[in-house]
Structures are given as structure tokens and as C-alpha cells.
Amino acid sequence: MNEVKLHGVLTASPEKVFRALIDPDALAAWWNPTSRMAMSSEQPSGSLRIRP
Which residues contact 34 (CB under 8 A, 6 or more apart)? Predict the structure, then answer.
């Protein structure tokens, strides 16, 4: 399994960031507006997938 760790500063409220991480449509718009697909899991140690 490949692992990528990112660190950054976001100019958004914690609520908006959390929503983006659990709502596929919000995730796609936030991460990459041209994404065709985004999937996330709201489980601890869940997964996050974004396809261009």
C-alpha cells in the first residue's frame, strides 16, 4: 500500500474541512474542482480517493 502524508494550513473552519472530508461532492470541489470522482470514509484510519 502506498502512503502519502500532507501537511498544510487551511483557511477554512474545522466544520468546513470535516464536511469536505466526509462528503464526496464537497471533497471533489475542495481538492480538485475538475475531479471526476472522490470517495472518502469517515471511519478512523479511513481512506480517501480522488481521481482526476
Answer: 52
Across the range 42-50, mean pLDDT stands at 65
The closest of 22, 14, 15, 19 to 39, measured between CA atoms, is: 22
Please tell me the distance from the alpha carbon of residue 50 to that of residue 31, in angstroms, as a whole number. Answer: 8
- Domain coordinates of the chain in residue numbers? 14-41
Q: Mean pLDDT score of the chain, rounded to an integer?
A: 71
* pLDDT the model gives residue 35: 57
Please enumerate in sequence order all residues whose Cβ is within 8 A of that of 46, keeping only pairs 6 or more positions apart, or say none: 40
Report pTM: 0.46
